[in-house]
Amino acid sequence: MTASKVVSFGHYQPGRIVPNAELETFVETSDEWITRRTGIKERRWAGESDTVDSMAAEAGRMALANAGDLDATQIDLVIVATCTERDRSPNMAARVANALGMDQGPATIDVNTVCSGFCHALALAQHAIAAGSATNALVIGSEKFTDATDFTDRTTCVLTADGAGAMVVTASAESGISPVLWGSVPSMSDAIRIEESNNGKFAQNGQSVYRWAVTQLPAIAAKVIERAGLDPEEIGAIVLHQANLRIIEPLAAQIGAPNAIVATDVVYSGNTSAASVPLALSKMMADQPLPSGTPILLFAFGGGLSYAGQVITAP
């Protein structure tokens, strides 16, 4: 089977920065309460012109610009992970391919496993390359989470944000993406919801999700590293789903990777669901690039309840 690797990253965030103080003007909350409960200081909210597919296209455009000799015409698979698209057809991946001028006609697939969507999408791209069904893939997570936000619910509206992140993945002689570890807890599928019965708005049982994340996920994340054939000490960076800093910090600590930089982009970007892992990693690599070959743990979790993770090597 053909191996694969990540060759570049890209991201997009809307221009509007929303500090905690702005939320105080329309919902009963405070900067102190939000910071203590979530670690978030500010987030980005999309304008009317920002859509799931337009943000995905901009993140993809940046990833392709960073991909060296590879360009949009060589992409034969586009996967977009999202749970906030409003339109059933055409799907977001097809719109992205059109926006980026991919007249060669790549396969275009949308994935919805909510917050774990990007890590699932990355695994699907890896599997397609291994099977010989693709050679170059553009994998994107994009969310306009504010479309699914109840701005009267102070427990959720302080979390949500908008943005997109992307990776270009190509066939490779040596593997740069470990086997995925994925799964779900169907008995807890109602813990995180975006349902028509609630006007399509995000709701969750926050305490149940928190307890699950900090008690059950550390062992699963450790198995991701084990499946990659590595010891925790070899991990150079940890990029978890940017759900809440109060989940990220204890989860990262329990994984036990003492040499790893831990992404905490949630502080400035909020919770962008399926976009959060590639967004946080792209920004990390832009701000302080990791040496080529550095093992990076990606691990996402959320609605379903679902989870997925893999180790990639920095390009």
UniProtKB/TrEMBL annotation:
Enzyme class: transferase
GO MF annotations, alphabetized: beta-ketoacyl-acyl-carrier-protein synthase III activity
Pfam families linked: ACP_syn_III, ACP_syn_III_C
Domain Beta-ketoacyl-[acyl-carrier-protein] synthase III N-terminal, chain residue ranges per copy: 109-181
Boundaries of every Beta-ketoacyl-[acyl-carrier-protein] synthase III C-terminal domain copy: 226-313
UniProt EC number: 2.3.1.180
Keyword Zinc-finger: no
UniProt KW Acyltransferase keyword: yes
InterPro entries for this protein: ACP_syn_III_C, ACP_syn_III_N, Thiolase-like
Record keywords: Acyltransferase, Transferase
Stated name of the protein: 3-oxoacyl-[acyl-carrier-protein] synthase-3
Organism: Paeniglutamicibacter sulfureus
Higher taxonomy: Bacteria, Bacillati, Actinomycetota, Actinomycetes, Micrococcales
